[in-house]
Design a protein that fits this description.
Layout: H1 4-11, H2 31-34, E1 39-45, H3 50-61, H4 63-68, E2 71-77, H5 84-87, H6 98-107, E3 116-120, E4 126-130, H7 136-145, H8 147-155
Parallel strand pairs: 1-2
Antiparallel strand pairs: 1-3, 3-4
């Protein structure tokens, strides 16, 4: 379920054109529903610990750069009430359903106690996995080097979420 602060943040995002096949971000958010349209950046943590807060702060400071690259920040805390809401109140952040959070932990082999950041490409494949907070510069450099992003730039896509 998307929390109210996140829902309000998502409400100010530019709407996709009618021709766009971008999925509507709803309370039924799944990684599969984001495929081909977004680059999910999963931030796994047991709770809103120091690493989690540090990563989310860095991401929120450069939210515009992430939006340009169609990155959707997805905190994946073990418990929904672990404080994610206060850390995801910027545009370009969304929450997965509880069952989808568990599925994502299994898919990427993340234990309940681990802090891990995983970038998933538009093709659904894992592009980056880090057990420490990732710098925005590293993320942007990686995304900008991806063939799909290069094509987006050549084709003149704005890349806004």
């Amino acid at each position: 379920m998307i929390h109210l602060p996140v829902l309000l943040a998502l409400a100010v995002l530019p709407m996709p054109s009618l021709e766009s096949s971008a999925p509507q971000i709803t309370s039924q958010l799944t990684l599969a529903s984001l495929r081909h349209d977004y680059r999910p950046l999963l931030v796994f943590a047991h709770s809103a610990n120091e690493e989690f807060r540090q990563q989310m702060q860095a991401l929120s400071e450069r939210a515009h750069d992430l939006q340009e690259r169609q990155v959707l920040v997805v905190p994946v805390l073990l418990h929904e009430d672990s404080g994610a809401g206060e850390n995801t109140t910027f545009a370009g952040a969304a929450l997965l359903e509880p069952a989808e959070r568990l599925s994502a932990r299994r898919r990427f082999h993340i234990s309940e106690q681990e802090f891990t950041v995983v970038l998933v490409g538009k093709d659904g494949g894992e592009k980056l996995k880090s057990r420490t907070p990732v710098t925005i510069e590293r993320l942007l450099k990686l995304i900008d080097s991806m063939p799909t992003r290069q094509k987006e730039l050549r084709d003149g896509h704005t890349g806004q979420l």
